[in-house]
Amino acid sequence: MPDKKASPTIIGRGSAEGGRLFRDWFATLSGAAERGEPTAYVFVMGSLAEVLRAFDMHLVFPEINSLQTAVRRVAHEYLNIAEDYGYSPDICGYVKADVGVQLRAGQHPMGKIPKPSLAILTNACNTYLKWGEIWERLYPASHIFTLDTPGSRGLLRKDWQSAPTFENDRRYVEHQLRELIVLCEQITGKQLDIDKLRETMRYTNEMSAAYQRLLEVNAANPAPYNALNEGTIYLGVANALRGSKEGAKYFQDLVEEMEYKATLNIGTLPREKYRLTFVGVPCYPIFRRFYELFSEWGGTFVNSA
Fold first, then answer.
1. Residues 6+ apart with CB under 8 A from 211
2. Among 134, 167, 217, 236, which has the minimal tally of Cβ within 10 Å of its Cβ?
């Protein structure tokens, strides 16, 4: 039971600290760009952050970079650059915004994006594969690694983990990860430190457990946070700081804040009338106004996907 006399500074701590961590992360990327330190371009699905952190590689999420250009209402500048370069208007805006960043030598509203030493692609989205081909043309000296993840064809079986197909799939993915480790060793000149890998995985597990608890706490009525507004900050930190001590601590502190608010019936809205779920991509150029369209009527997004 939280202490009702506890300092009110706990309320809003997660959003403020998340913003700070996000800005610090971009500042670190700017420093890496100036120093030419090993950097990996990764996607939010299948980033393999734990392996890369074990080699002290910086992580760049082009999807997040593109999203940030939209939130800061300058995406059109980057889209125009890419289209003037020859990319069609009907190509994914995330891709074109990133192309604009690359053609601007990494200049971004949040800082300077370093060039990739390595790019990791997955088959989670076909666009990822074509995106990687763009980097391959722009940066011939960089390395491209594609993780081919088998489809979850056996998940409908209760014994899916003991099915022969699962073991074959596991070995297939394991072999690819071993190939990635060898590639990281070649790029960084470092040998894999298995204890450091275990540490990054432990931090990810701690973060994941805290994130799961965060979702559970938001079932409270009223909801302690808006999954579309504040939740976007939380997801940003979950990706950027995955596998780090700072990321794990952030989410543990965040759970403490939300449990405190839920116990005292403190909601993200003073009067919650509607509980909503958002599926898809919000309109980032008018992001604030977008969620206000619902909050003004008493609607809170308790979950998003």
1. 234, 238, 251
2. 167
Name 253's Cβ contacts closer than 8 Å, sequence gap at least 6: 13, 14, 17
Distance (Å, whole) CA 285 – CA 221 = 30
Neighbours of 77 (CB within 10 A): 13
Could you tell me if 113 and 65 are in contact, meaning their C-beta atoms sit under 8 angstroms apart?
Answer: yes
Per-residue confidence band for 67, with pLDDT thresholds at 50, 70 and 90:
very high
| Among 194, 196, 217, 214, CA closest to 206 | 214
Q: Is the peptide bond before 222 cis (omega within 30 degrees of 0)?
A: yes
Is 241 inside any structural domain?
no
With 0-12 / 13-18 / 19 or more C-beta atoms within 10 angstroms meaning exposed / middle / buried, residue 102 is buried
In CATH, what number is assigned to the domain containing residue 69? 3.40.50.11890
Q: Are 56 and 155 in contact (CB under 8 A)?
A: no
Q: How far is CA 17 from CA 155, 234, 271, in A?
A: 38, 10, 26
Q: For the chain, what is the domain count?
A: 1
Question: Quick check: 303 and 277 in contact, CB under 8 A?
Answer: yes
Q: How far apart are CA 100 and CA 105, in angstroms?
A: 9
Residue 100 covered by a domain = yes
Please report where in the chains the tokens 């009525």 appear, as a residue.
221
For the stretch 145-156, pLDDT in tens is 999 988 766 556
Domain, as residue range, for 143: 36-191
Q: Is residue 3 assigned to a domain?
A: no
Portion of the chain with pLDDT greater than 90, in percent: 81
Give strand pairing partners of 147.
122
Give dist(CA 190, CA 137) in Å, integer: 27
Q: What is the DSSP letter of 280?
A: S
